[in-house]
Amino acid sequence: MIPENHKTMIDVLKQEGVVGDGNHDDTTGLQAALDSGAATVLLPCPPRNYLISKTLRIHSGQTLLADRNAIIRLADHAHAHMLTNADHEQGNKNITVIGGIWDGNNEHQTCEYHQTGKWQVPYDPQRYLGVLIQFNRVTDLRVAHLTLKDPEMFGFQAGNLRRFSIEDITFDYNLKRNNMDGIHIHGNCHEGRIVNVKGTTNDDLVALNADDGSMVELSRGPITDILVDGIWSQNGYTAVRLLSAGSPIQRIKLANIFGTYRNNIVSFSNHNVHPGEPSTFDDISIQGVFCSKSSVFYGSAQLPDGPADAGLCFGALSLIFIQAPAVVSNLSIRDYYRTETVMPADDIHIQPGAHVDNLLLDGMTVTNRSGNPSIMLHNCGTIENLALQNVRAAAGGSVTDIIKNEGTIGHIEKLIEI
Fold it and tell me: What does the pLDDT average to over 46-68?
């Protein structure tokens, strides 16, 4: 517990046990500063970097304030998260983390997920999963102006949050691990904003996973009332993943997504993490997409060899992908602009067995210069009501079909002729 007679601020370079030379282990001194009761723990730029060998724990009512260029580096073979909240059982309130370059030093760690392959086991909070920063059961959390560098797995992982803001985050990843997520939000998270994130990852830049399964499921439950606004990536993997396998994802606004992506811009997925559970998405808004496919491909994301596998590949690699058995109540896509030169993957692909109650496409312009025909809306599932306004394939490129329907569309309303 934080003493009531706490100090206002501690400069850790004046704290006993903190050297900041990159060789001395600063963990004990840094944790002592956090345990001292200081309202603000200041990490100025050290002579080299702060070296830590164990997880730092921040308390309720505290701010950890680091210079933007201050490096906090995980020691070789530490096999630990870098930062978390002090009380995962009862929870914490009013935590702020600002600044710093949080370096997971992944080439000198041993994460069970990556090195041993023993990942099909239940979640264990004591297991090291290669996460830089992890929060669980925090109300009023703010994380801002951080650079997340070279994790084994996730840069940021959190569950059971209420009222949170994650802003101005840069991913500086060496891409030497094949599952390097950016910001990974688990179930039972509500009333949050994730804004202005940039960089290239080897998995989702932002994941809102109400369910996850196996050893990574920090928490499970609904995710509601979230704004994601401002994503920039060149050769990114997926900008935003929405995953529901038993718990609903509701009232999500995704806005202003830029760059090129190997996999999807937005995916509605389940990954069969809890087989047989419903995959439910209610009131999802996507507004402001300025994206195309990446010329760099990773893993299974390869250009098809010929017409036989082109349909499957282009569907799974669509910019917006709705995976069966998703049930989406209301989905609106507005202000969507794509100029494609690499790969004529579908803009929107709905798998067989997926269901959308109401789909609105408003202000979509696609210019296809890939040399092969493309499809804007490829429906292989069910759409009850489809409304289109200001939807067009721009002249001067390859053929783009506005709609290819291989499933069921109950009603189509063209608000303005396409």
Answer: 97
